[in-house]
Amino acid sequence: MLLTPDPGLIFWMLISFGVVFFVLAKFGFPIIVKMVDERKVFIDNSLESAKAANIRLAGIQEEGARILKQTHDEELRILKEVQETKSRIIGEAKEQAAVEAKKMIAEAKLAIQKEKELAIRDIRNQIANLSIDIAEKVLRKSLDNPQAQRELVQRLIEEAQMN
User: Fold this and answer.
1) Residues in the chain with pLDDT values less than 70
2) How would you classify residue 154: left for phi > 0, otherwise alpha for psi between -120 and 50, otherwise beta?
3) What does the pLDDT read at residue 163?
4) Would you give the end-to-end CA distance of the chain in angstroms?
5) Which uninterrupted H or E stretch holds 163?
6) What pLDDT score does 59 carry?
7) Fewer Cβ within 10 Å of end Cβ, the chain: N or C?
C-alpha cells in the first residue's frame, strides 16, 4: 500500500494538472508555437539566402572565368599584332637599308666616274702640255713663225682630247 495514493490526492492532482494545463494551453503554448514558427521562417529565409548566394557565386565564378579567357585572348591578339608590327618594321628597315645601300653605291660609282674623268682630263692636259713643250722645242728649230706654232699646238691638243 505504499504505492496506492489516496483518492482525494488524485482528485486534487487532477484539478491542479487541469489548471496548469489550461494556463499553459491558454498562455504558454501559443507563445512557444509562435517562437518555433518564427525560428522556422528565419531558418527557411537563411536557406533561401544561402541558395541565392551560391547561385550568385557560381555566376561570378563563370564571369571571372569568361573575363580571364577574354583577357588571355586579348593578350594573344596583342602579342600577335606586336610580332607582325615587329616583322613589318624589320622588313621596312631592311628594304630602306637596301635602298640606301644602292643609293650610296650609285653615288659612289658616280663619284668614282667623275674622279676618273677628272684624272683622265688632268692626264690629257699634262700630256698635252708635255707635247706642247716637246713640240715647242722641236718646232723652235724648225718653225720660225709663231702663228704656225699655235695652230700646230691647237691641233695636237684637240687630238689628245679626242683620244
Assistant:
1) 1-2, 135, 137-145, 163
2) alpha
3) 65
4) 168
5) none
6) 93
7) N
Q: Are 139 and 152 in contact (CB under 8 A)?
A: yes
CB 143 within 8 A of CB 149: yes
Cα angle value 142/148/154 (rounded, 5°): 115
Distances (CA, A) of 161 to 59, 60, 125, 137, 157: 96, 94, 8, 21, 6
Residues in the chain: 163
The pLDDT of residue 150: 75
pTM tops 0.85: no
Q: Which helix (H) or strand (E) holds 28?
A: none
Read off the amino acid at residue 135.
A
Grid look-up 628597315 returns 93
At residue 66, the pLDDT reads 95
Question: What is the spatial distance between Cα 7 and Cα 125, in angstroms, rounded to a whole number?
Answer: 167
For residue 133, the model assigns a pLDDT of: 77
The amino acid sitting at 14 is L
89, 91, 92, 107, 159 from 103: Cα distances, Å: 20, 18, 16, 6, 37
